[in-house]
Amino acid sequence: MTTTASSAPTIDVHAHLLLPEVEEAVAGHPGLAEARALDARRNGPAALAVNGPMVGARVPKLTDAAVRLTAMDAQGVDIQLVSPSPSHYHYWAEPQLAEKVCRLANEGTAAHCAKAPDRLHGLGLVPLQHPDLAVGLLDHALDQGLSGVEISSHAPGHELSDPAYEAFWSRAEETGALVFLHPFGCSLDERLDQWYLSNTVGQPTENAVALSHLIFSGVLDRHPGLKLIAAHGGGYLPTHIGRSDHAWRARPDARGCEREPSSYLKQLYFDSLVHDPQVLRELLRAVGPERVLLGSDFPFDMGTDDPLGALRAADLPDTDFHSVRGGNAAALLNLV
Question: What is the residue range of 51's domain?
């Protein structure tokens, strides 16, 4: 494994894409205005004032494959796993529009990656708000040559523990599709509308809640082969999993899963984007070095412009460093 990991390409599994065709499809729908109003309440005016110019300055990196490749070269990244910006989820959309959004996202991501197929792999979308459509649109994503799909932490009226998703989890496990868990928006709403708490606290909270639903509900018991990658290092859960284990031991109502919750972390994958070398080392301790993948959140401001530098700062053993740098992702993407 050491030789394979050290010779593997450097792979960033957390990189985003903007798809104008998706936004054109939803333009003018009343649900879009409502969703934007909710987003405004959640983020607050100060964050919105920063977000617009921040995204605007990054549009070339988010849309132009040549610009993306130049940036990857500067970072020392050989391969990106590209996923649509979570702003494209549009979980408010009714079934017909939701299917159109996902098909456009799948096809648009595949077309972007096709411009550099040796360096860009892609993920599509499924409409979590319509579980009955998820299997068909997962298949559509795979038919485009994508590696899997990206999902949020929940959809209106549906947690990831919802039995309505069983067919989706089964199909993802059967096909070996990757499922990238990347929250968009936090259900704590206006409590986080200052100081960009909507992201700094909201995102890791949503990750922890979503992963806890998957663990405690027994989804990971029923689908042990599921290949799920949690963005942002899985949020608060991996470094605070002891509290979950205690609840599982102490309370009968927390016994929805077969084993202690911490044991399921070794069935999941996590990106390295935790912004703290000590937390990254703790993440590897909690989940195992074979379960952490390099992630940058390219090219947004809450990511890192130097993912390899952030990884080096953790001062990991060489074997672990190269596993996270690319060995683990290469195996997951069937590149070795």
Answer: 9-332
DSSP 94: -
Burial of 75 (C-beta count, 10 Å sphere; 0-12/13-18/19+): buried
In a domain, 197, yes or no: yes
Q: What is the DSSP letter of 258?
A: S
How many domains are there within the chain? 1
Look at residue 150 and tell me if it is in a domain.
Answer: yes
% helix, strand, coil for the chain, step of 5 = 60, 10, 30
- Token pair 């990189």 in the structure block, residue: 15
pLDDT tens for residues 184-241?
989 999 999 999 999 999 999 999 999 999 999 999 999 999 999 999 999 999 999 9
CA-nearest of 86, 297, 91 to 184 is 86
Q: How far is CA 292 from CA 79, 170, 263, 286, in A?
A: 16, 23, 15, 10
Q: Give the separation between CA 326 and CA 4, rounded to whole angstroms.
A: 10
Looking up residue 295, the CATH number of its domain turns out to be 3.20.20.140
What pLDDT digit, counting tens, does each position of 228-248 carry? 999 999 999 999 999 999 999
Cβ-proximal residues to 19 (8 Å cutoff; 6+ apart), any chain: 84, 85, 88, 104, 105, 108, 109
**Token reading at 237:** 């859960």
Q: What distance in Å separates the CA atoms of residue 160 and residue 181, rounded to the nearest whole number?
A: 10
Residue 255, domain member (yes or no): yes
pTM for this predicted structure: 0.97
Is residue 3 domain-resident?
A: no
